[in-house]
């Protein structure tokens, strides 16, 4: 499928200030910390009797259609419901109609200010005050399951429920793409990061090795000489962050996740990483990284991917670029992008590629104001179940896919053809792999059609290179604290420093930019932030039994 999951990463919620406003509103209109006390507990006496062995949506005899509002804190979310094959089936099976509302933090705040909450709510920042104060405005999933749908406990991951447990011992939100250790161990989670190069370029240069800084710089020069119309090296749009040259590059060369004694490790200042940044600066000075790459937004970057403008790329989020890579591959046989080993650690470290962690991405809640919390809970259970997962990824048996003798599934020829050759129509009619509130990577393993052909070789290259980053999840200082404000300033400073270093006119300018950043750290509570992060890393290990 042309998946867009994690397309915005941690940028789904934009600003701490807006969220602080929101939490004041939450606290102001809340009557206490017990999430269940003020919920709209509807009676199901004449509708169904709960059964731990059967999902409630199959039992519910409610005849009238339930209208629900679902707020998604992202302007880009597709608000259609009931038009494509996936949401049409959800509408039919659950006897519901969903009105999606989208917006940003400002819109999110209006719900808490006005008291007119949607039935369901989805946000993207697990560290936000909106999430941490969920007990004041959302209903615990534990209570909802007990009262309306105990089958939920069969389809929800115990580790994920425990990870999101709040101080009152209850869990209010459930994410998508929450990968547990068992998921990583299964081998069913594909890598999403790769160093890729156009096949025609790679072969014309004699399939060169570019593992060392010297080799890499040399190959970039050769590309410029033989393919002057191409940009030798590209990377994900930087935008307000670091693109794929931050964490993704660190993971690619295996920068450690923690110190030898288990404390927080500043990966941005790792010697190996800085060596590669200095190498990329040399490549830039050679004219082999375009200035446009530092200014391009996501759309501009995608257009260059789609047209094969980059000879080579460090790409983070191959599924998100799957559609663009497939369009290029379909129109340029023999020139498609392939993954190779690319840059390697100067210290001998192996790649520790990251994937979605246990925190996941989109976090879904049922509000206290939900008109029919029983029906809302049925949505959670349905989409988390095997039936819902297959629907979201592959559609309806007989209409979009067929089951094979070995238990895997295969898209029907007409559907597959549209996936390969008409991505826009495919998205509009089928929406496979896109309606992903409770999506999970492991269900992609059911079919060779789960991802476009263009990225399968990249995923094969990544096998065995994934390392869970659980210990680094949710370790930042609590919002509203002096350390959180300092960290926000530090992150902004690092983003600009990274660009400055990559575009430095000489080694002295590179070193000066780095030194200025290191001074900024000391002036902005960095030792305190490191202490907090180390303590939260310890808590993560305890929570997951990693001690």
Automatic annotation (TrEMBL):
Signal peptide: none annotated. It comes from the Bacteria. InterPro entries: Bact_solute-bd_prot1. This is Extracellular solute-binding protein. It comes from Paenibacillus cucumis (ex Kampfer et al. 2016). The lineage of its organism: Bacteria, Bacillati, Bacillota, Bacilli, Bacillales.
